[in-house]
Amino acid sequence: MRKVLNFIWKVITAPFRLVWWIIQAIKNFFKRIGQRIRNFFTEEPEDTPISEVLQTGFENPNSILFHLNELRKHLFRAVLGFAVATILAFIFIRPILDWISTPVGGIDKLQAIEVTESIGVVMRVALLSGFTVALPYIVFELMMFAAPGLSPRARVIGIFSIPLVIVFFVGGMIFAYYFMLDPALEVLLNFMGIPTLPRPSSYIRFVTTLMFWIGVSFEFPLIAYVLAAMRILKPNVLRDNWRIAVILIAILAAMITPTVDPINMMIVMLPLMVLYGVGVLMAYLAWRGRREEELQQA
User: Fold this and answer.
1) Which of 61, 134, 163, 227 could form a disulfide with 233 if both were Cys (CB 3.0 to 4.6 A apart)?
2) Which residues touch 280 (CB under 8 Å, ≥6 apart)?
């Protein structure tokens, strides 16, 4: 009789015990999340000299394998987020193609020759769109991988700079589209008075390459500010090596520019040089602000 009553009691109380178990599981989940967030912003990294780290890595390769395994996990999640964003970009691929081809009069003005040319164009645009959408998450995963070796202040700076990554990247793409694309196309499509009928592959490759690299270049002031605030990069290094920077900018501009004419190359070089100067200024501001804060604490 007792077994029957216990069975009936378990059947009656099963829904309540299930609800209680779900509540406890949710509570423990948020508790673990809160503890991880607290550790992320307060846990101090081990202050180990680089020579000792290298020696430990040679003596115990398993320690390096652990970090490689963690890097693999973060890269896998970043690639997965990029793949999901690329799939979502296919939903809006037609409006995106219409917007990109507006400077030449629309997608109807592009003449495909090869059978697979249109598919390649769609894939290229989808990949760039997916990368743009997934960029904050990719940076977040890289930040989480590097977080154990950073100070709490550096982690806070890194986390709060993630939204600015997409702002600077998209700002660079918009700048390239609205201010650099039209002058470049005017020279390329009417050079020596020869009319040109652009192909989708060449036109889309030119536009996406220009927008992508200018978007990446716009990240330099933000990167300089964050690294200087973390005490990783000194502003004097950027200031003293400006000649090398000009040479590197000229090489990068030559790689981005599809032609060898100096007009298009200068169109690309000038914004990059301005961005380098802004990056130096931002690094000085971050370094000075951190130094004043350290003096006040002392």
Assistant:
1) 227
2) 224, 235, 238, 239, 242
What tokens appear for 248 in the block? 């590197």
CB 268 within 8 A of CB 217: no
Closest to 217 measured CA to CA, from 173, 258, 262: 173
Q: Residue for token digits 């940076």?
A: 139
Separation of alpha carbons 222 and 158, rounded Å: 11
Contacts of 137 (CB under 8 A, 6+ apart): 78, 81, 85
Residue closest to 40 by CA, chosen among 196, 152, 165: 152
- Distance (Å, whole) CA 209 – CA 252: 12
Query: What residues contact 14, with CB distance under 8 A and at least 6 apart?
Result: none
The pLDDT, as a whole number, for residue 114 is 78
Torsion of CA 238, 241, 245, 248, to 10 degrees: -130
H runs (alpha helix) in 90-180:
93-100, 117-146, 152-175
Contact indicator for 283, 238 with CB cutoff of 8 Å: yes
pLDDT in tens, 224-278: 888 887 777 788 888 888 888 888 888 888 777 755 667 667 777 888 888 888 8
